[in-house]
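Below is how a single chain appears once it has passed through the pipeline. First comes the sequence as given, then the structure the pipeline wrote out for it. We keep one example in the README because the format questions we get most often are answered faster by looking than by reading.
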Amino acid sequence: MPFNEFDPSEDDFRKLRQHYYDLWQKPRQTWEVVQNYIEQTFAVWSDREKQASRTNYRSPRANNIINHAVNAQTAYAPRTHREPLGSGSNQRRDADELEKGVNEALIATGKKKPIISWKQLYRFLFSYDYGVARVGADLKDWDALEPKSDGFSDKSMFELRHRQWEREKLHYNPLTIDVPHPSRVLLDPNEKNPPLGIQTFQMEAWKVNELVITKKGQGKVTTDKLDAAGDPYRQVEIDDFWSREWHKVFHKGDLIYAEENTWGFVPFFHTFGGHGAEGSGVEGMRPEHFSRPILIPTIDILLLQTQQMNARHEVLMRAAYALLRSSQDGDQLAEAMRKGNIVEGTDSDDVGYIPFPQLPGWLFQEASEIERDIQEATYPSGVFGVKQPGVVTVGQEAILQERADNTFNDTRVQVEDIATHVAQSFLRLVDVLTFGGHISKEGIRFAKHRIKASQIAQDYNANVTFELVDPILLAQEKQLALAEVAQGLMSRRRYWLTSRVENVTEEEENLLEDEIDKNPRVHSFHVEKILRRKGLKELADEIKAKRDEGDNDVGGIGEPEDLMEGLADMGGGQEQATTPGGGAQAASQIANGVREPIGDVFGSAAKPPLMGR
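Resulting structure:
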């Protein structure tokens, strides 16, 4: 039997789970160390006596490193590209519509969880250098949920509930995406889309029992080994097994139910962040070599920095609250100080603070060297907006930012690849669920667009990217592209892609509509229609009569040419942007723009935030 059709018995499953558990043992131990530093639960001092007698402040630096990386790189606006299935306009339109539908699906499903899925994936990749995504479909039995009239004494209330049911069914999105903690998923580390997958999670006992009842009604339960007695809210550990042909659920190695995997694929996708590499020998293919968290090289330095901070703090406290020395009775002096009284007969040398040694300057210099080592091992502070010394121009800032961002290139590419697999799986699921009658032929409706099986046509090609677009650079790219269009070096369609226009076919149709609206006869029809809507029948009849005689004059009401001229005046005219001379000037501005302060490019406004978040 092919491996991807593996149908494990209970004994086979126990062996498989143990094999994967042992395989991922070392990475889990590394992740636990990293998590202790992120959550600030690590031991500052190894000796218990020292822990009791010394300060135990734990620096949040590890958590800050991860947070800054996640916040700097996470983008929430996906851009999907799908190749049309033909050269005709209908095929291009279907591809453009699916691109928007998939974009909305990725955004909508990513927000279903309490934590945004895409940000969670970035966090795991930066924290552990490993992340997992799982797709699925949360199907509802809409026929069973449909309100019945005999259940309502008030007819109007029944009609209200039924309309609500219809609208919920119309807008329901069954697609899901989950980003579980890597320690709860067991996959083959050498396969991007593994042929087998196991996810461990916990469910309340009553939910498991309800699941057993449901599957038993479908004839899929083969054993009743789950103990339903006791607290119905106790957490029950469940193992969810998937292969290309089978989906099985186990509890402590015992099968709860089994069913065919009608989706035709394993719903897990995983990736490493790119900071690891294969080791030497056969053992080098193990996952601990691939998963190399960004914090691991800095663990000793972070501990050293925390210990120094505690030491400096303790020195400060001893200096600020130094002990008093006195040749007189100490209790009498303490009582006098407590009451604010004056102690008689004491010389200035009789009372004073115990002298504290002055700390050498090199001690604080070492702290700056530790900070430099941490940044060299992770990334410079410019990544999260800290201005670097000596940087005064936009060009210098852009160069440094680009080089710093190179640290995250691999991680960003891996996230986009996972998103691409998720998007392709969504298309597969819509196809399968439509075929199985779980969703209508109208597909799934999102914010403004749908994903329909008729548009997919059993072709699941899609490519997803997450862009963090700098508005300054985007404006410069558009200027240069506009100049190349004017000189015949770039097509208008390519210009729209450069401008990040999502639906190019729709844009073409909109431009065609603009040209049609410029026709005086068409404009006359529009004016007549609006006048009738406003109740100005006589004026509308007059315009219609003139048009029937071949006169399309509407008396200067909203002439399209006037409107277009007004828009051109508002934008500073079009000649400079559309003539070869204007294109050359735009190219010159682009060449010089990166050397100008940000305010010179965008007026007096501050630099706008990155787009795509």
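Confidence is low (pLDDT under 50) at residues 570-608.

See the next section for the split statistics.
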